[in-house]
Amino acid sequence: MTDEISPPRIVVGVDGSDLATNALEFAIEEARLRQADLHVTYAYAVMASPVTGSTGRDYYEQVEAEAKAFLEKIKDAAPPTAGLEVEWLGVPGNPSEVLIEASRDATLLVVGSRGVGGFRGLLMGSVSSQCVHYSHCPVLVVREGH
Description:
Blueprint: E1 9-13, H1 18-34, E2 37-44, H2 57-77, E3 86-92, H3 95-102, E4 108-112, H4 126-134, E5 139-142
Parallel strand pairs: 1-2, 1-4, 2-3, 4-5
Helix pairs in contact: 3-4
């Protein structure tokens, strides 16, 4: 029995923003440098019923279709990924929770940070902050202008 060593895996969170595009660029470069697989993850909200915890079938199918279309737009606008193993994932759920879960078997998690202007702009956004505090691997936070 041989133990196959799987390649490193880099997870990057995308949401269509300019900072997420910058994060994707960093993640692609890191994947090339580390000869890693790249998992591009878009987390989309699905409203669940507070009583039953379920969603209406038609509603969920519509949201899922819209999320897939949105992810395709991100993919079409992405920098070239030739030579890389890339998986494009649309995952329903809270972005922080989805990315933290995706970090379990990852070598690196890459996220953008929008933050806010002024003094508060020195702080990270809520998703990046949650990822930094609870991720299962190192986190690279890409800030504006980098």
